[in-house]
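Why do we care about 3D structure at all? Because function follows from shape, and shape follows, mostly, from sequence. That is the central idea of this module. The next example makes it concrete: a single protein chain, its amino acid sequence, and then its structure expressed as tokens.
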Amino acid sequence: MTNNKIRLIALYLPQFYPIKENDEVWGKGFTEWTNVAKGTPLFHGHYQPHIPADLGFYDLRLEQTRIAQAELANEYGIEGFCYWHYWFGNGDRILELPIENVLKSGKPDYPFCLAWANHSWTNATWTKINSNKTPIVIKEQKYLGKKDYELFFYDTLRFFQDKRYITVDGKPFFLIHDPTAIPDIEVFISCWQELAIKNGLEGIFFIGSSK
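And the structure:
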């Protein structure tokens, strides 16, 4: 039976290091920090921009940054990190470097889980597109059916099997950003549950968020 104790898990956005896709669309060296630093006050007393304090303008390619984040989170009672995880279909991923390095290195030794950010990337993310213009799709989120869901599961299984992975009732916790966008959500859920049992897990503890 699920414990009713509140568990504090911080969502972890991995877009704090440069990647070629962002370089091509937004300019060389773009990261989330680019827009953080551009923040301007909208009303009297509005504190903008929010300049980072303890860790500064960190770079998620650095192991010492990821370790320092975990130490700081732990100090303030955060149980673990929930990394935004991208799978656009057929093995197409993005911003995977931080969580791949966490898995490979074993550092930080801090609980984590994954959240499928199942949405397309467009150039409307950071700019307002005029009504007479069509947004440019940078990465299209695709739902390719059961075979692709199986491929997705087996790519994710190595994370579920890590001793640091957060579980609920013994099941790996997996957040889906927008479950309503998945046209065959029942197929996806049942596929992953079956494969989880087949591979020695108790199942998957799914959570859905709203857009």
